[in-house]
Amino acid sequence: MSKAEDLALKAYPKMSRISEHHSVIPADNKSHYLGDANAEKREGFIEGYRQAEKDLELTWEDMMIIHKCIKDATNFHLYKMMEGIEGQKVVYKEVLKRFKERKEK
Question: Which of 44, 74, 75, 87 satisfies CB 3.0 to 4.6 Å to 80 for a cystine?
Answer without folding.
Answer: 87
